[in-house]
Here is the input.
Amino acid sequence: MAWSQTLQDASFKGIVFEVVKTDDSSERAIAEHTYPYVDGSDIEDMGRGARRISVEAVFYGDDYETRLQKFLAVLDQAGAGEFIHPVFGSIKNAQAARSSVHHDAESPDYASVPVEFIESTPGNPFFDRSLPSQMADAVQQHGVLATASASAAAAALIERLSAANPLAGLDALRDTLTAPLLAIAAQTGVVLSGLDVLAYPRAWGNDIAALVDGILDVRDFGSRLAADWASIQSDLNAFSIFSAPPSTATVPAPAQITSGSVPTEAQAIAATSATIQVNTAVGLANAASYVLASEAATPTLSPVEIEAICNKARIALDVAIEQVRAIYGIEQSRTITEPLKDQGLAVQEAARSIIEARPPLMLRTVEAPGNFRLLAHLWYADHTRAAELFRLNGARSPFVEVGDRVHAYAS
Here is the structure.
């Protein structure tokens, strides 16, 4: 996404102002060591000096004097403060070094204020913030840890159970392990390991993860985002029925698993069900990340739709966390639940960044009959944004009448 689509409102110590130009510079302290009769010199890097950020703030309109006075008053205050760079984001400690105010007789009710800020905190990097697309891509990293930990915990449990009962059939556990593989493999076309699920429970865990990935891989997350998201929810819901815990009306819930005791078959079944639930929840969160990454590049969804996608993923992750804690206990389950919590936060932050990257959504009143193309030309001087207005309003007709209330971005 180009920087022109992700600009932030510039501000200093909370006072927002408009900027028409920025000039950012920095230099490194260099020590040069030369030697007699030796060509060249050794260069020693002594570190980077403070960054200098020059901006040209502008104030215009009938009330420009009031806003200009507030800005100048902030510049006169002693000490550093937070400066929001329109491109690079927050610089926590910036010192206003010098400024000037320019008026021109040919530009009434207008003033430009060149200001130079000097970075006050050593080592503060530019681009400290993550772009929405980067935040969406980061969602999947946490899910990998959660599914791996859940599969490893279930596999260790099955291995302990099999070692303690080498002659037991464990038919109920075998059926629980095999059912999702047989039911979903044909739909996804994923090639499974084919190994015995009781003898190789770790291979079973890899097969479960591969099946969930296969459900996601058949979508391209392109022009049909809403349809892809709906179909993925349907497929993962069908997959998650195998993670449903036994009904308490007929079968009592198994006791929490402890590391010092031999697990029962019921506990192993509960652990495998939790593993499936973790994989489906992570799969839904990963699907949400694909949707959000596509949305960051090409907006097609409204803020309400983005929020709904985020909520669906977080609810699934919460269900998985509760199920894991019910089986392993809070302390023992931390290697699984902590990555799940991190993934839920990552989904939320990615959705928030995408929503905040856009102008505020507002309701506007139509003042003349016409259509969305005319409204886009009137409000934005860009008739191609008609599709955006059509989408934001869930409209069935492109025509509007006087007095209609239309959802539209502020700019």
Observations:
- Residues 361-409 form one domain.
- The longest helix spans residues 132-164.
